[in-house]
């Protein structure tokens, strides 16, 4: 009898505990509006659906997370969940993703507070729509403008060529680690004109620690990734704070020497809005932290995966290589390096290789928005204040848009233009990644020289893949870079 009573009590407590989030976030706060919510569940108190998310993304089958939701609730493209500490709606279809990313009246930035503490509340990911427009105006031309990209191309090509030559003599290297250092040097040059090896390497280590904490559980206890990331953030703030103050002092002393190359720091210090308001030190530091973090991670990973995929598919490698050889053959006498025109108009197949790599890898699995008011979407209501997760992986692996979606096949892009919302490697709408053109330029320059003169020999071609914080081989692609005739 006592055993039976105990079983009943445990069952009741389990039921109450399991439905706590439902009562708290739906019944208590929404009333009858809860009946218009998308299908799904809010999981356990505090934890929500995070355990199943982390379990899937720490396994060889990351898409099992969304697959299990779809198998339970149908292919609606909109699901309620409790993610990263908030009641949320996950959108997975091209139509819903396009709506959320483009409707600035209904959806604002919704990144978790833990993420904002790392990336910065004054950076692109945390500021209002109007402030975002203002910062994009300030930074667009110095990062993605034609003149700027033409200038950066020469430096990027120089560092790519020298890095490949160095790696060919180093024996076994962690290919991803070396690529991340390469792209970090590029972004440092653009933003701070800094080419100091020691400073660059020290900052890159801090950024690695910061990035590991962005997708980690927000546990601020020594030993956990988030705690280490917060410490890295403080170190980076101190470093960039001293640089900003020194630059301001130089400007006050009018030490603006002629011939000195202007960089993004100069642009941020000079920028002002129509009311004459300039950026504060804190705003400049947050913009730098965001740009420098985003500006090298995606490029380095994309370079590595493109090289891996081409190595795995010799037929695609030969086609891409032949295209680059043709560019060299057609060059006028006396031209020593790439031009922006060659990258943009003479590499159609390599562009397909890059797009297919971006699709298959899906560097950012999601972005966060927040409903500014109750929003109707696909027949469901997203309540005001709920987070909205735009789930890029589901969009990029939709078999209706991309047959055999897990297969790397650049030829799928032949005479194919994806419909709006079905290809989102850099997001979409007003908050499209501001450095997307620069990132693709870096990748194209690297692959041009890599395909012409080198090949990849992986030490552990069957190395397991990790999916958090970004998709990468567990051994960081331990390999040898071999020069070819």
What's a concise summary of this model?
The protein is α+β, with helices and mostly antiparallel strands and 485 residues long. It contains 18 helices and 12 strands.
SSE diagram, text form:
Layout: H1 2-18, H2 20-30, H3 50-57, H4 64-73, E1 78-83, E2 86-91, H5 94-102, E3 107-109, H6 113-119, H7 129-144, H8 146-168, E4 172-174, H9 175-192, H10 197-214, H11 225-252, H12 264-270, H13 281-312, H14 314-330, H15 340-345, H16 348-361, E5 366-371, E6 375-377, E7 380-382, E8 387-391, H17 392-396, H18 436-453, E9 454-458, E10 465-466, E11 472-473, E12 478-483
Parallel strand pairs: 2-8
Antiparallel strand pairs: 1-2, 3-5, 4-12, 5-8, 6-7, 9-12, 10-11
Helix pairs in contact: 7-8, 8-9, 8-18, 9-10, 9-13, 10-11, 11-13, 13-16, 13-18, 14-18
Can you give a write-up of this model?
By secondary structure, this protein is an alpha+beta fold. It has one domain (33-483): Cytochrome P450 (Cytochrome p450, Orthogonal Bundle), CATH 1.10.630.10. The chain has 18 helices and twelve strands. The protein has helices spanning 2-18, 20-30, 50-57, 64-73, 94-102, 113-119, 129-144, 146-168, 175-192, 197-214, 225-252, 264-270, 281-312, 314-330, 340-345, 348-361, 392-396, 436-453, and strands spanning 78-83, 86-91, 107-109, 172-174, 366-371, 375-377, 380-382, 387-391, 454-458, 465-466, 472-473, 478-483. It has a five-stranded mixed beta sheet with strand order 1-2-8-5-3. The chain has a three-stranded antiparallel beta sheet with strand order 4-12-9. Strands 6-7 form a two-stranded antiparallel ribbon. Strand 1 and strand 2 form a beta hairpin. It is globular, with a radius of gyration of 24 Å. The model has no long low-confidence stretch (mean pLDDT 88).
């Amino acid at each position: 009898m006592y055993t039976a009573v105990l079983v009943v009590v445990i069952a009741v407590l389990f039921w109450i505990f399991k439905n706590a989030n439902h009562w708290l976030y739906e019944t208590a706060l929404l009333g009858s509006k809860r009946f218009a919510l998308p299908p799904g569940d809010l999981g356990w108190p505090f934890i929500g659906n995070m355990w199943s998310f982390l379990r899937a993304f720490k396994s060889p089958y990351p898409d099992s997370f969304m697959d299990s939701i779809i198998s339970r609730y149908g292919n609606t493209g909109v699901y309620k969940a409790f993610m990263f500490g908030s009641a949320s709606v996950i959108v997975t279809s091209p139509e819903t993703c396009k709506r959320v990313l483009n409707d600035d009246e209904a959806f604002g930035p919704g990144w978790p507070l833990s993420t904002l503490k790392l990336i910065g509340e004054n950076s692109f990911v945390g500021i209002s729509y109007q402030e975002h427009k203002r910062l994009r105006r300030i930074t667009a031309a110095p990062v993605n403008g034609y003149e700027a990209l033409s200038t950066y191309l020469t430096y990027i090509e120089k560092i790519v060529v020298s890095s490949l030559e160095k790696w060919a003599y180093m024996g076994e290297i962690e290919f991803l680690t070396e690529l991340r250092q390469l792209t970090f040097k590029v972004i440092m040059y653009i933003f701070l004109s800094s080419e100091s090896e020691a400073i660059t390497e020290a900052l890159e280590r801090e950024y690695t620690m910061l990035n590991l904490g962005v997708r980690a559980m927000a546990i601020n206890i020594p030993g956990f990734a988030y705690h280490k990331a917060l410490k890295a953030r403080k170190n980076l703030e101190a470093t960039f704070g001293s640089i900003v103050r020194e630059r301001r002092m130089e400007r006050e002393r009018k030490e603006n020497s002629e011939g000195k190359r202007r960089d993004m720091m100069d642009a941020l210090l000079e920028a002002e809005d129509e009311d004459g308001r300039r950026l504060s030190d804190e705003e400049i530091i947050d913009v730098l932290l965001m740009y420098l973090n985003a500006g090298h991670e995606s490029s380095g990973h994309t370079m590595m995966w493109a090289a891996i995929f081409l190595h795995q598919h010799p037929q695609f490698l030969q086609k891409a290589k032949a295209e680059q050889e043709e560019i060299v053959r057609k060059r006028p006498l006396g031209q020593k390096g790439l031009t922006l025109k060659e990258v943009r108009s003479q590499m159609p197949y390599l562009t397909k290789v890059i797009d297919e790599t971006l699709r298959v890898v899906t560097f950012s699995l999601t972005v966060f928005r927040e409903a500014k008011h109750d929003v109707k979407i696909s027949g469901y209501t997203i309540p005001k204040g709920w987070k909205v997760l735009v789930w890029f992986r589901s969009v990029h692996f939709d078999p209706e848009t991309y047959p055999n979606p897990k297969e790397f096949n650049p030829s799928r892009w032949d005479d194919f233009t994806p419909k709006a919302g079905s290809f989102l490697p850099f997001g979409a709408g007003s908050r499209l990644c501001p450095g997307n053109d620069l990132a693709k330029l870096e990748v194209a320059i690297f692959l041009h020289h890599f395909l012409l003169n080198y090949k990849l020999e992986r030490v552990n071609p069957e190395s397991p893949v990790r999916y958090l914080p970004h998709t990468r081989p567990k051994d960081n692609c331990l390999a040898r870079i071999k020069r070819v005739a």
